[in-house]
Amino acid sequence: MQHTEQPTGPVHVAGERSHPTPGKYMLVFAVLTVITAFEVGIYYVDAVRPAFLPIFLGLSAVKFALVAMFYMHLRFDSRLFSVFFFGALVLAGLVVLALMAIFGVF
Description:
By secondary structure, the protein is mainly α. It has one domain (22-102). The chain has 3 helices and no strands. Helix 1 (22-43) runs antiparallel to helix 2 (52-71). It is flat, with a radius of gyration of 20 Å.
């Protein structure tokens, strides 16, 4: 009976990305914090009221993408998962905008 030794460390497959370091996660956290602070700040500025909705939706989409790509590890999965995930986000956003247009929110 032969025993084959299993690798004890991380195994990297060709073409596979390595996971980010804790410093990278802290950087993403800092970016998310700045974006959130900006979102809260623009709510209180009357000069940007006409452009509030597009700015807010854009920043929310950026935050969603950062969370999905880094904290949900979607960045390290197959590209097909990313296409489904973000395709659904775009579709949902378009449906919301269409409903807002139908009901005269704009």
